[in-house]
Structures are given as structure tokens and as C-alpha cells.
Amino acid sequence: MVGEYKKGGLVLLYAAVLFVCLSILIPYLWLVISSVSHRVELTSIPLKWIPDSLNLENYRQIVTGSSGINASLKYGLLNSLIIAGVATLFCLFAGSLAAYAFSRLRFRGKNVVFSFILVTQVMPMIVLIIPIYIIMSKIGLLNTIPALIIADCAFILPLVIWLMRSFFESIPRSLEEMACIDGCSRFGTIFRIVMPLSTPGLAASGIFAFIIAWNEFFSALILSSTIKSKTISVIISEYSSKVGVDYVAMAAAGVVASIPPVLLALLFQKYIVQGLTAGSVKG
Amino acid sequence: MKRKVIALLLALMLVGGTLFASGDAESAERITVIMPRHEMDLVGIWERQTREFEESTGIQVEFIQMSWDEVQTKVMTDLAAGGNSYDVIEFDNGWVEKFAAAGWVEPLNDYGDSDYFNTLLPGLLNTFTVDGKILGVSWNNDTRFFFYNKAMLEKAGITAPPRTWADVVAQSEKLKRAGLTDYPIAEYWNQEWALANSLAFYLYSFGANYFDKDGNITINKPEAVEALQFMYDMLYKQKIVNPSSITLSQEAAADLFYRGSSAFFFQGPPSTFSYANDPTKSQVVGDVEVSEWLPAKAVGLQATLTLPEAFAIPKASDNKEAAWKYIRYMISHDRDKERAMEIGSLPLFKRSYNDPDLLEKYPYWVQFGKQSAVAQALPLVDWYDELVQKTIVAVQQMFQGTKSAQDVGDEIAEFLKGREYNGMILHE
């Protein structure tokens, strides 16, 4: 009887897992199918799940084209890689140090300062974009990659500080005390003891920071104008015209844009799971 | 350890400094052009012609192309902030009065001569002229046309497209009885800007308008209310308009036409014919025809919308002469004909409509020319965007059944009361 209940519970669990997986994978699968279909197949009734013939024209233009939106996608991809990469590395470095300070150091107003940092996360970007635009314009950074890196860091850094602080709290202080006894300096302790133990947390924070920076659209739209600094998310939005959207081309661009974050997530998935579950079990 | 940290910090500063280092030494004259992508330009011909301009003049162009909504956001933000980020800007037909009232754009009368301006289509030139000042030169002749599925009509025994709205209803019911379609018409009546365009078309076709040239508000008078009621009745009484129309965009409505679900497309963009004959986009290849006329309450009330876009030079631009050179180059008969031949965009010059090369490639432009004779612009007021917001909400409420056609007319009339138009105050 107990065994039957256990089996039944297992079936339900796997059914729920299958449902979640399908609800995540099917939209992406449809994106891929749309990207190699012709528009007439996407609007036909009944719906054609598998196209009669593959339409690879958009992918060809993305790779070899010299003009048009498809051709500019590769520049957007490069810009996004640079912006997301640099913003992630900077936020991991600065955020980890700040998180360590909030976790380990004692100073007046520590909790108030930490709360202020978190409060910035609740401010919608649309409230901040005009002052950011004016500042970037005054210092001559409009339509440049550094402007977008700075804008991304402004809202990613608090998240990294918050995540890493939680992770540092789960690392026993006794390890640092032992290192100190052995003559290790504070920075030495951080880089030799704490950071290596924090690899899962760094990976989890890093992947979140990268995805946020990669997907960021609004500040990129306002601060960039040409392919000198346009990100892939801005270029994808340009597939819409006054009278409609080129869905097939946009789907192809979406597939291309999804490759780097998906690869990163696959590479670091072990660390992400560790990072998200670290500290969940006491003792 | 300390040395390593210092080295790391120095490296970061170096990288940061490199990233911050800005570029290029100022050499050639530079202008910045911002415009939406032409809906038919899938091959990048505007960008290509811009590069040709650079080669022939030596003037460097920072060429910004984005979706229409994004361009609107960027242009409005920059102009309102008094910025001079752009030298040639998108100038939509709906912005003419607003920009003129705000004094944001440079009159172009002294830049070009009358020989040039007189070669442009008068309707396009006049749309962007205020009090004799030419504020923009059109780059997109976005006139809307009536297309129909000739094959469906022939199967139902209909020999010609409808001339009146009564004909539309009769032919639609015939198509339904023949089992050819459940809903012969699909409209774009989603609560967005395009709904206001659609309403304007129906108002004009009933001989109605929001107000008349003497400043009398007419949106709540019988002719306008009849137009509103007709839109409602087509949906719920005659049931000849697809009920999903109240959530359809222009593109979604067009997709139903290309799929053969609807037989009439009253206000399609010029690209509709070529899309309908593209087998990768359409299931009605060879079935679509361009009408020589548009349906209206009476034959003499025919109207179609023209929604052109233009280039303008902001008053704050530091490179006005170079900006004009760009406009003059791009909006020339030769460049315009090249675009027409390659992507099928409607010409901007009068003589192009008699061009044998173009007429051989696009014989249906003869019908376009006939419909263009009754083209009308949207209301030219500097508060048009506010009128659009008021209108689309009220009309959607009518479609939802919470307001009657008269209620909608009265509500819009109340909004119009006291507004300024051409030096007059609108009144009932």
C-alpha cells in the first residue's frame, strides 16, 4: 500500500516535471521552427508545425549580408557580448568585495547602507533614464559601449552584492580566523580562502548578471543609436515597421541571440545549482 | 599580495581607460540622420543610397534606422530637450502642426528652389507646408488603397468591387451565403493609433469629419454618428466584419486577407499587392486586384487616407546645409525611381506616374493613381496625438458595447470644445 502511494507520488512528480519542461521548451521550439519557415506557413490554418521546405535565407543574410537589419545583427551580437561580459566581470569583482564588507566587517550604518543599495532595485528604469541620458550626453558618452556598461552595472551591482552577501554568510568564519592565525592578510583571506569556496555563488551571480545585461533593452534603446553601440535586443526590435513585423526574420534573430546565454548556462549549470542551493541545508 | 592587488587595479584602470578612449579625429563634415525603416525596404536600399551620398559628397552620415515607435521616442525626446543630436529627422504627417507650433523645424523654402518643389506630388508637399513654409520633404508616399480578392468575388458571381457601403454589405452577405468566407472583412480596430486612422477613413467616406473648416464640431452630428454606427453594425448586426477585428493590428488584418479569409481590404498599404502575390507570404497569389475606386456612402464621397512621412531639419542642427544636401540627394527623381524599381515604393514625383519603366513593372499603379485622386490627410492639429488617445478609447468602448455611437460622438465633441484650430476655437 505504502509502495503504491510512493509510486503514485513519483508518477505525479515526473508528470509535473514533464509539464514544466514542455512549457519551457515548446515556445523555444516554436521559435526555431518559425525561423526556418515561410510566413505563409505561420499564418495558415491548420497550423503547419513542420514547414514544407526550410527557409534559411534569414540565417544566410545574418552571416553573409552586407546591408539591412539581418546584416547588422552580427555587430549587435558583438556589442552585446562585450557589454554583458565587461559588466558581468566588473560587477562580480566589485560586488563580491562589497558583499564581503557587508558580511564580515562591522561599521556604523552597515544595515542602512545595505538597505539603500537594495532600494535602488525597486526603482523602475523609466524613472532614471532621463537623468542617465542627460549625464551621458554631458560627458559625451551617448551612443558608446561604455555608456551601456555603466548603465547595466548600475542595476546589476546591487543584485550581485545581495546574492554574494547571502553566500558569504554561509561560509564559516572559523576558516578565515584560521587563515588569519597563519598570517594571512584580509585580502589574502578573501582571494585565497573565501573566493575559491564561493565559486558556485560567483557562477550563479555571474550567469544572472550576464543574462540581465544581455536582455537589457530600455537603456540600450535610449542610449544607443547606431551599430557602434546598439545591442542585439535593440536590433531585434527593429524588425517591426509601421505596418507590421517580419516574424520569420525576427525569429531567426531570436535564435541567434539566445545562443550565448544558453551556452553559458549549460557550461556553468553545475555551479548554478550549487550556488542556488548553498546554505539551504543546515549543518 | 599587495603588489598583485595593485597590479590588478592598474589593469582594470587601463582597460577602463581604453574603453573610454573616444575615437575618431574630426575630419570630414558629419551629419546624423534618423528615420524609420521603410516597410518595403527589406534589402537596405536606403542605407546603400546613403553610402553613395557619402562617396559623392564626402559628407559622412551617421545613419540611424529603427522602428517607427523608437524613432518617434528618440526624436520627440531630443527635440523637447532642445538637443541637436540629429541633423535630418523623421517628420510624420501627424506631427506637422505640433512641430510648426513649437518652432522645432527649419523652413526649407530658401534651401531648395521652386523648380524642385514643383516636381513633387502636390498632396505630399502641401501636407508638410504650414502658412506657406515648407517644413518637410516627403520620403514615404504612404497612401492607402482598396484591394479585393477578385477570385472570391467571381466565385460568388460578383463582377465588380463595391462602390457604396450598401454594396459592401450586399456583396459580403453574398460571399457568406456562397460559403466562401465567414467574415468577408477583417479590420484593424485594436485600441492603438491605427484605429484612429480607420475611423478617419470611415468618417470621410460618410462625408463626415471631426470638425469643419469653419471650426464647427461635427463628430457628434448625424453623418459622423452614422459612420460610427455603420462600423458597429458591420461587426454585430450584419456580422460581416471578423469579430477579432477589435483586437487586430494592421498586420494581423492583412494576414487574414493574404490567407484568403477576408475578401476586402479597404485601406491597405501600397505593399499589399506585392505581398499578396508573394508565395512565401500569401495563399491568394494571383487572386488579388486593386480597385479603381473606394466604397463610400455615396460615390461622390470616396476618400482614402494619405499618411506620408518626410525629412525635416531641426532648427537646432549645426549642419543645416549638409543636411539639405542629403535630403536633396535622397529625394531626387533618380534615387526615387531606383527605389521604386527595386522595392516597389510609391514614387514621390509627379512625372514618375507616367514613367513607362515603372508602369511596365507595376501596371496596377494606374488604379493607385485613380484612388490617390481622392486622398485626404488626417486632421492637421498640434494636439492630434491627444485626439487619437481620446478617440481610440471611446471607439473601443463602443465596440465593447458600453457606449453608443452617439455617446462616442458626444464624448469626442466634448474633448474638441475649446481646442484651437487654424486660429479658431472649435465650437458646437
TrEMBL record, chain A:
Pfam family, one: BPD_transp_1
Compartments, record wording: Cell membrane
GO cellular component: plasma membrane
Topology of this chain in the membrane: Multi-pass membrane protein
CDD domains linked to this entry: TM_PBP2 (cd06261)
ABC transmembrane type-1 domain: residues covered: 77-268
Transmembrane portions of the chain: 12-33, 77-100, 112-135, 141-164, 247-268
A biological process from GO: transmembrane transport
Top-level taxonomic group: Bacteria
Keyword Transmembrane helix: yes
Keywords on record: Cell membrane, Membrane, Transmembrane, Transmembrane helix, Transport
Gene3D superfamilies: MetI-like
Similarity section: Belongs to the binding-protein-dependent transport system permease family.
Name of this protein: Binding-protein-dependent transport systems inner membrane component
UniProtKB/TrEMBL annotation, chain B:
Compartment annotation: Periplasm
Keyword Disulfide bond assigned: no
Alphabetized InterPro entries for the sequence: Bact_solute-bd_prot1, SBP
Domain of life: Bacteria
CDD domains: PBP2_TMBP_like
Annotated Gene Ontology cellular component terms: periplasmic space
Record keywords: Signal
Signal peptide: 1-21
Presence of keyword Signal: yes
Family: Belongs to the bacterial solute-binding protein 1 family.
UniProt cross-references to PANTHER family, sorted A to Z: ARABINOSE-BINDING PROTEIN-RELATED, DIACETYLCHITOBIOSE BINDING PROTEIN DASA
Protein name: Extracellular solute-binding protein family 1
Source species: Sediminispirochaeta smaragdinae (strain DSM 11293 / JCM 15392 / SEBR 4228) (Spirochaeta smaragdinae)
